[in-house]
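Table S2 (text version). Query chain:
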Amino acid sequence: MKGAVLYGPGDVRVEERADPTIVEPTDAILRLSATCVCGSDLWPYRGIETYPGPQPMGHEYCGIVEEVGSAVRNIRPGQFVVGSFWASDNSCPICQSGYQSRCVDARLMGLEGAQAPFLRVPLADGTLVATPELPSADLIPSLLAASDVLGTGWFAADAAAVAPGKTVAVVGDGAVGLLGVLAAKQMGAERIILMSRHESRQKLGLEFGATDIVTERGDEGVARIREMTDGLGAHSVIEAVGTQESMLQAMRSTRPGGHVGFVGVTYEVALPGMDLFMSTVHLHGGPAPVRRYLPTLLDLIWRGTIDPGKVFDLTLPLEQAAEGYRAMDERRAIKTLLTP
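Corresponding C-alpha cell output:
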C-alpha cells in the first residue's frame, strides 16, 4: 500500500509501505474510510520534534474492520469503528479511572502510520468503538474528528471544569481549540471567549458556540480577558497550542480557584514558579484519554447533535498529503482530511 512518510523537516512523501498484518492476537486490521493531518504532526514537520529515520505518519482514523486476531472478542469484521490515537486495553486500573491514554500497556498509534489505506490497531477490544451500523458518507468527517481533535477538545473542556453558568476562554483557534468551543457549548457554558485572529476560524468558532472573539495575544490578551470578566479572569480556560506564550496566557487569564485544561503538545514550556504559586489555579491536561469519551461523542454525532467534521476545510487524496501538511503549516487550512 502507499502511505505518508516523513523524511525530515518539510519532507513528506507518499510511498510504498508494507501492508499491515496481524502481529498480536489482540490486533485488528482496518480499511480506512478517512484519515487526516493533525496539528501535532506539524511539530516534526517543522523540525521541532525529530525522528531517527523515515517515519510513517498519522494517528487519526476510522474505517471498516477487515480482520481481527484470535483473541479479539468484541470487535468483528464488517463493523465501522473509531479508535483513539492511543491504543489501550481499557481494563487496567489506569484505564478504569478514565485515563486510557496512560494505560499500562498504551501504544501510540502514530507509530503505526494512519495516513494510509490500511491500519493495524493493537488492543482492538479496548481501543475501538463500533457505530450502530455503517455510516453515511456525510458522517465520516465527524466520526474521524472524534478519533482525536474532538475527543481532545472535549477533554480540555472537562479538565477545565466547564459547567453551566461559567465563562470559558479558549487559547488556540486550531481544530482542537475550535472543538473545545463546541465542547464548552455542549457542557452548558454561559460565555465562551475564543482568542483568534483569523476570520475563517472566528466564523467557525461562532458557529460552534463562541459568544465573544478576542484578537489580542500575550499580556494584551490576558488584560482583555480580565477586562471582560470584571477583573477576575475566566472560570475555565482551554489551552490548545502548547507554547510558552499560550500556557502563560491561559494561566494568567484564569481567576483564582479556576481551572486550566491544557492539551496543546508542549515543547520547552517552563512556568515561572512564583507565577504558578500565586495563581491558585487548577492545572490539568496532557494526552487526552479520548477512549473515555468515544461512546458519548459517537452518539452525539450519530444523532446529529454535533457536527465536528466542519473543522476539515481542506480535503485531498492521500497522494497529495504533502500539500495537506503545507496548507496547515502555512495556516491556509484548519485541518486537512485525506481520502485513502
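Notes on Table S2: The chain has a mean pLDDT of 97. The chain has twelve helices and 18 strands.
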